[in-house]
Design brief:
With 457 residues, the chain is of the alpha+beta class. It contains 19 helices and 12 strands. The chain has helices at residues 11-20, 22-33, 52-60, 76-79, 89-99, 105-109, 112-123, 134-151, 157-171, 176-182, 196-220, 229-235, 246-277, 279-290, 298-302, 305-317, 350-354, 370-373, 394-411, and strands spanning 36-41, 44-49, 65-66, 132-133, 327-329, 333-335, 338-340, 345-348, 412-416, 424-427, 430-433, 438-444. The strands form 4 sheets. A 5-stranded mixed β-sheet has the order 1-2-8-5-3. The chain has a 3-stranded antiparallel β-sheet with strand order 4-12-9. Helix 8 (134-151) packs across helix 9 (157-171), helix 11 crosses helix 13 (246-277) and helix 13 (246-277) packs across helix 14 (279-290).
């Protein structure tokens, strides 16, 4: 086996460098070793690829290279043992087919008006002239949308409790205190509800139990006319023709809601940062939105070329997901002229692919027009991964991004509080704004002509 070159430092030290400066660390490694590198995890070689032709080989060669669910077991604690990330083979393919309708076609169009209503409701709560953090504000919006689309909950005590528990479980591991405690000798021990790790386990158990209760109750009152993801899953059969168990239904619901809250919100926070940091981008975007007239429908908004380019550029320059999900070499295979042996792990480096100067001239610059001038292949632009593990909610995520941005920009006058560049911070799979994008609202946006309301039909 001939492995690509790569850094010789221990994996734990490399991870620390990645946590401290994710993009700077990867830029240095790429400059020294190129677009295919090896990092050793014990005796297991992990090969990172940022060359589009190599990524195509990884995604399309499903015989020698497999997307095993076992490689994603580190996410099982948050997503459940039977979540979509932990499944593989025919079972994975079957469950993806069940989940996808909720995020595609006419189904997502029906959520257009609700997305705009929730956005306006949350944004209107901001105090004029008082700084606020865009990231948690947008997270509130996207979590509410996710809970409604996936669970079909719209209001009430359970609606609020699900949101609280989801938000708490997802935020807990990222808190500075939790990270500090985890470095201590006994930090990972569960000493009960009042210890950091014990409290985390308690929140997770509360969330899982609440979701299981929701599944049980909905199955007892099954309604074929409902179109949320939960309603479809409880009426569906598995690949053997048997009903899907309540435990598996529960686990299948967690990742879509978590992705809606985290990945979509992070991409939106970065979008707001870039739009308000670059006045020319904001002006062109507002002009495009205003040209839609008084009552634009969701299809018209989503089809806006410059709005689409801005969203794509935000996902390119600071992708919320830095890496693809790992693949495993099952039998000897050649990738970019390297002979790889079984047991080698392959991971696409999304960030470095998006930073290639041969694809994206001046890659550090935010230039939405590049997406108006060229169409990129799914191996050149892959913010949602690719192949068998491509995000099932990619279409919905872009739909949601565009409507939320259109609502905020059309209605409110905002600006950044801090003029210094926003620093990216790596946590888990996501790369989010370190300071949360601090902004201030000055009031309703003043237009030269009669203001209009976004009406999504």
């Amino acid at each position: 086996m001939k492995l690509p070159a790569g850094p010789k430092i221990p994996l734990w030290l490399l991870n620390q460098q990645l946590q401290a400066d994710p993009f700077g660390c990867m830029d240095v490694i790429c400059k020294r070793y190129g677009d295919i590198i090896t990092v050793m995890s014990g005796s297991t070689p992990i090969v990172y690829v940022s060359n589009p032709s190599g990524i195509k080989q990884i995604f399309t060669n499903t015989r020698e290279i497999t997307a095993r669910g076992a490689l994603n077991q580190s996410f099982a604690f948050l997503g459940g043992n039977q979540g979509i990330l932990q499944l593989d083979g025919l079972r994975h393919k079957h469950r993806r087919k069940l989940l996808m309708p909720a995020f595609h076609g006419a189904r997502i169009q029906a959520y257009g008006q609700r997305i705009c209503e929730l956005t306006e409701k949350i944004m209107s709560q901001q105090v004029l002239g008082k700084p606020f953090l865009a990231s948690p504000t947008i997270e509130d919006i996207t979590l509410r949308v996710g809970v409604e689309v996936v669970l079909g909950l719209h209001e009430g005590e359970r609606y609020e409790k699900v949101q609280y528990l989801f938000s708490s479980v997802l935020k807990h591991p990222q808190s500075p205190f939790h990270k500090l405690v985890m470095k201590l000798p006994f930090g990972k021990r569960n000493f009960g509800h009042w210890s950091p790790q014990g409290h985390f386990f308690y929140l997770r158990q509360e969330l899982f139990q609440l979701l299981y209760t929701q599944v049980e109750e909905r199955r007892e009152q099954a309604d074929p006319s409902r179109t949320d993801m939960l309603s479809e899953l409880i009426l569906a059969s598995d690949e053997t023709g048997e009903p899907i168990t309540n435990e598996e239904v529960r686990d299948l619901l967690i990742s879509p809601i978590g992705a809606a809250r985290d990945a979509s919100a992070t991409a939106l926070a970065w979008s707001l940062y870039w739009i308000h940091r670059l006045p020319l981008v904001r002006e062109r975007l507002l002009e495009e939105l205003d040209n839609l007239g008084d009552y634009p429908d969701s299809k018209s908004i989503v089809a806006l070329p410059y709005l689409s380019a801005v969203c794509n550029e935000a996902l390119r320059i600071y992708p919320t997901q830095l890496f693809t999900f790992p693949r495993l070499v099952e039998s000897p295979v050649e990738v970019m002229s390297y002979e790889l042996s079984p047991g080698t792990v392959l991971i696409g480096n999304i960030y470095l692919t998006h930073q290639r100067e041969d694809l994206y001239p001046e890659p550090k610059q935010f230039k939405p027009e590049r997406f108006l001038e060229k169409q990129f292949s799914p191996y050149e632009f892959l913010p949602f991964g690719g192949g068998a593990r491509v995000c099932i909610g990619a279409t919905f995520a872009l739909f949601e991004m565009k409507l939320i941005l259109a609502t905020i920009l059309s209605r409110y006058q905002l600006s950044l509080v801090d003029k210094r560049p926003e620093r990216p911070k790596f946590g888990g799979l996501l790369c989010y704004p370190a300071s949360g994008v601090k902004m201030v609202m000055y009031g309703q946006r003043q237009r030269q002509r009669q203001p209009h309301q976004l009406m999504i039909n």
